[in-house]
Structure formats: structure tokens, C-alpha cells
Amino acid sequence: MAALRTALSIAALGALAACATTGTGSGAAASDTHIDREARRQVAHENLLTQMTFWAQEYAAYPTDLEAGQKFSEALRLGGQFDRASQVASEALSRHEDDQQLLMTLGLAELGARQPNDALQPLAMVAHLDRQNWRARSALGVALDQLGRTDEARRAYQEALALKADDPGVLTNLGVSHLMAGEPAEAETLLRQAAALPNAPPEARQNLAIAVGLQGRFDEAEQLERIDLPPNLVAENMSYIRSLLDNSRSWSSLSGARTRQQ
């Protein structure tokens, strides 16, 4: 069955992700006293491609520097280079054990790569180390949902909402949990709540379209899809949603439902 696609993901930048190496050469041996702290502060205002290029160079020059490892791995993750992001985060964790930012990036990268088993440990560690970290609990819920551990996943989402009430990203993830369980009406309630909140992620509206369509309200679903997607993807997505109505058993691996992990 063809996957339900969207036009919102950042394009992969594999050549850039591979350009940073560690371990040999004069750059790797450079002293951190030569780090340009002002340049590091300023690059945060640049676009993602510029940030990825900058932190690739910084990590190559200062492979043992915690900030370089954190920022490079996170930029790779945001750029869709999940495997490389996981590799860099793991390398950095070997030097900075139990760093929560690196653990979080590692867990999210593994989720992005659809490796929920590998995401569980780092995300659970962050949740244990920081009892107030609602993002870690929401991401942990996503990993558990991907593993089919629905009850545990929903407990994790509820813990996240107890810390961050009405967060649209957490509500989106909980809504997706209901979609995957074949409960579109329950999903619709949560996703409408998420979509109506300030700073609602686009995933909330896209998943709402799926929930509405799975209840046979195709015109409404199509209108929601058109807000974010071009006509060709809208048509393909609607065809996919219709096919799901004939095979509800496939909902557990609903390929079009998109969780919110950032």
C-alpha cells in the first residue's frame, strides 16, 4: 500500500552530513581556546543548511567539544539525516555520558529513523533524569506507540500533558495514538483541540484530515488537506484514506499519520 505523503519534510542533505569526520588531522587536535564563541551564537539566526554546514565544520575541528556534538547532531536530525544524527549523538555521548540534550537528540533521531526500540532507552533516561521534561515523555509515548504498547504510550502522553497542559504537539501525538488504534472519532476530538491552539503544528491539521476522512466525511477532509498540500498530494492522500476504509486492520501502521517530535 502506498504511503500517505506530505510536502512538509526537509530535504535530505546526505553529502553535507557525511562531510564531518573526527579523529585525525590537525583540525581534530585543535585547542578549544580557538573556538569562535561569537560565531557560534550568531549562526543560530541562520537557516538550517547554513547551521548544518557550520556545525559540521565545528565538529570536525573540535570533536570532543560538547556543544559542537550537541548542535551538529541536532542540526542533522532537523535536516532529516536521522542515521547520521544518531551516530554523532552516540559518539558525543561516549565522551559526555548522560548528557540530557544528547540523549534527547539520540532518541528523537531513532524515532525519525523508525527505530523505536533504539529510541526507548535514551528517552526513558531523559524522563528519569528530568521529572519535568514533558517533551521526553511525549516522545517516549511515540516510541511506545510504534511498538504497539498503546496503554503505556497513552500514560506517557498523559504525564506530558500533566506537565504541559494543552500542548498542541502532545495532543497531536495522543490523537495519532487513537488513529492507529482505529478510533478516528476519539482522534478527531483531540486533533481539533490541538489544531485550534496557538502554535499548532501542521501535523495536527493533517492528522485531523485523516480522522475526518476515516469517518467518511471526505469533502471536509479534502478541505483540511488543501490548507497545507498541493492538489496532486491531496488527491493521492484522499485515495489512500478511502482505501483504509476497506481495510481497517492496516490502521495500526497508518503511514500517513505524523507525530510531533520536535
Cα-based radius of gyration, to the nearest Å: 20 Å
Give average pLDDT, whole number.
Answer: 86
Q: How far do the termini sit from each other?
A: 28 Å
Strand content: under 5%
Number of helices: 15
Order of helices and strands: HHHHHHHHHHHHHHH
Which overall shape is indicated by the principal axes computed on the Cα atoms?
globular
Largest sheet: none
Structural class by secondary-structure content:
mainly alpha
Poorly predicted sequence stretches spanning 5 or more consecutive residues: 1-30
Helical content class: 55-70%
What does this structure look like?
By secondary structure, this protein is an all-alpha fold. The chain has 15 helices and no strands. It has helices at 14-17, 25-28, 37-43, 48-61, 66-78, 82-93, 100-112, 116-129, 134-146, 150-163, 168-180, 184-196, 202-213, 218-228, 231-245. α9 runs antiparallel to α10 and α13 runs antiparallel to α14. The protein starts with 13 loop residues before the first helix and ends in a 17-residue tail after the last helix.
Short note summarizing the structure:
With 262 residues, the protein is mainly α. The protein has 15 helices and no strands.
List keywords for this structure.
single chain, 262 residues, mainly alpha, 15 helices, disordered N terminus
Please specify the SSE layout and strand pairing.
Layout: H1 14-17, H2 25-28, H3 37-43, H4 48-61, H5 66-78, H6 82-93, H7 100-112, H8 116-129, H9 134-146, H10 150-163, H11 168-180, H12 184-196, H13 202-213, H14 218-228, H15 231-245
